[in-house]
Amino acid sequence: MTKTDHESLHYMDEEAKRKKRMKWTIGIIAFVILQVVQALFFVLVIMKFKSPKFRVGEFDIQTLNVGIQASPSFNMSFVAPIRVKNTNWGPFKYDASTVSFTYGGAQVGQAIIPKSKANFKSTKKIDLDVTLSSTNLPSTSNLGNELSSGIITLNSQGELKGKVTVMFMFKKTKISQMNCTLAINTATKAVQSLTCK
Question: Where is the Late embryogenesis abundant protein LEA-2 subgroup domain (predicted)?
């Protein structure tokens, strides 16, 4: 073997080692970039804790009695469909709470929400029996005018406090608020409009 052949082999050997090192370097850089992308996705999407949405849905009124004459009044009963929509990547476990129904700021009824949980990326459905009565309203209320117009405007308010747990170890306390306005049509005995904030 001549000196040039020896140098040529040495050069080819060095070139092969350089290419191998380059492949390893590219592989390591690609692996690191992949890990950074996965970590960013995890932090920005999975670990983003949001307050679940807490709402009352539309319902059918089972009974509705109104008095328009000397003393305006109403009594009604219905099954309120309460919905807890959890958009987190972990379950939302909440404590027992209440939903208050008010007319003109005065409470006319309430319903108790039992302690439970809404699974990840799902909506927990709770049906509550509700009875409302205007007997505790002050005599200065606008109830007579509303009953004459055929619409009763009610508000439903509530608060759910609980914890969202992601990957069985990351926990964060979240509070969900309900603030809905309902217009009840006394002629059709139905919910005419429902808006929630």
Answer: 82-175
Supply the range of the domain harboring residue 38.
1-46
Total domains present in the chain: 2
* CATH number for position 98: 2.60.40
* Residuewise pLDDT in 10s, the chain (197 residues): 566 666 666 777 788 888 889 999 999 999 999 998 887 787 666 678 899 999 999 899 999 999 877 788 999 999 999 999 999 989 999 999 999 999 988 999 999 999 999 999 999 999 999 999 998 888 767 888 888 899 999 999 999 999 999 888 889 999 999 999 999 999 999 999 999 98
DSSP letters along the chain, please?
A: --HHHHHHHHHHHHHHHHHHHHHHHHHHHHHHHHHHHHHHHIIIIIT---PPEEEE---BEEEEEEE-SSS-EEEEEEEEEEEEEE-SSS-EEE--EEEEEEETTEEEEEEEEPSEEE-TTEEEEEEEEEEEE-TTS-TTSSHHHHHHHTEEEEEEEEEEEEEEEETTTEEEEEEEEEEEEEEEETTTTEEEEEEE-
Q: Are 155 and 173 members of one domain?
A: yes
